[in-house]
Design brief:
It contains seven helices and 13 strands. With 319 residues, the chain is α+β, with helices and mostly antiparallel strands. It has one domain.
């Protein structure tokens, strides 16, 4: 364990020291952005009860139950294959024989405003693990996240069949039935796009929103197991809620209780929000965007051999 931790620290130091002037953001900036109280949203939720036995006697002990968000990954959504706006990790997803080009459709007709757009997507472990842990611990006891820094959970250049041909998801009910799994709603005139099929193509007049929809698709994939994609699940090794630890689950669009987004490119934000939102959206000149994906965790410090249950201050009981 010590050797693995030392290796992670060495990789982080190496990445932070790499020059990336040709790209939109670097690891040092991403690490600094993680020190956000708004995104952390630290809360004391309730009390956990434990059974501690020794010799011939047992007693019930308690510990505080807390909840907060953790930046598990950086999700990049960008037009040009091989040009991830996070400079140090761009080498992970270069063009290959099955995934070479990128970009949007073109036309000479000025009235044509629903051109096909294409976005690559990379989901890579957030680089701020060590510094973020110290920052979060200043608020109190903290939970462990699922992400490991610099680990690639999804590289769309390796997911060619699903990402570029929408197979088999183009035949899923979510892809065929209007109104299912959409980001926003037609009724509010704020529909950003559909989650399915979870690939790189979509039609949109707004470049930022198109990139956000693709980022949501990538986050949707990696927070689930058994998807027909080439990826590694961004989930804890023990998904069941046991032992006073309740990890983040599946990401659901527009539902902050499952995850939220912090803009990194083209502008670094100090706050988090879900899609859709009313924030000011700057357009990237080169079609490259990136967000940090913050996911919610709840936990309590182990104070016994057996976790019994927890009581939240709002009256909820969890076993």
């Amino acid at each position: 364990m010590k050797r693995a931790r030392s290796l992670r620290m060495w990789l982080a130091s190496l990445a932070l020291g790499t020059a990336t002037s040709a790209f939109a953001i670097d690891s040092a900036t991403i690490v600094g952005s993680a020190l956000s109280p708004d995104c952390l949203a630290y809360r004391v939720l309730g009390v956990c009860f434990w059974l501690q036995c020794s010799g011939f006697s047992c007693e019930i002990r308690t510990s505080v139950k807390v909840g907060h968000y953790i930046p598990d990954a950086v999700v990049s959504s960008y037009s040009n294959t091989g040009e991830n706006p996070w400079g140090e990790v761009a080498f992970m997803s270069p063009p290959n024989r099955t995934a070479e080009a990128g970009g949007d459709g073109t036309t000479n007709e000025k009235h044509e405003n629903n051109l096909a757009k294409f976005r690559n997507a990379d989901v890579i472990g957030h680089p701020a693990s060590l510094i973020f842990d110290r920052f979060a611990q200043s608020f109190g006891y903290t939970c462990e996240g699922a992400g490991t820094m610099f680990v690639p959970y999804l590289l769309s250049t390796l997911d060619t069949i699903a990402w570029r041909y929408n197979l088999p998801e183009m035949f899923y009910p979510e892809s065929l039935i209007p109104g299912r799994r959409e980001i926003g709603a037609r009724s509010t005139l704020n529909l950003w796009g559909n989650v399915y099929p979870r690939g790189g193509f979509l039609h949109h007049v707004d470049d930022y929103k198109a990139a956000a929809v693709v980022a949501q698709r990538a986050g949707d994939i990696v927070t689930r197991r058994g998807q027909v994609h080439v990826y590694y699940p961004l989930l804890p090794l023990s998904p069941i809620n046991t032992g006073g630890y309740w990890p983040a689950g599946e990401l659901i669009e527009s539902d902050e209780s499952t995850g939220k987004w912090q803009e990194l490119v083209p502008n670094v934000s100090s706050t988090c929000a879900v899609f859709p939102n009313s924030n000011t959206h700057a357009q990237a000149v080169d079609g490259g965007y990136a967000w940090a994906l913050w996911r919610p965790y709840r936990c309590c410090k182990r104070e016994g051999q057996l976790f019994l249950f927890s009581v939240d201050f709002d009256g909820g009981v969890t076993r």
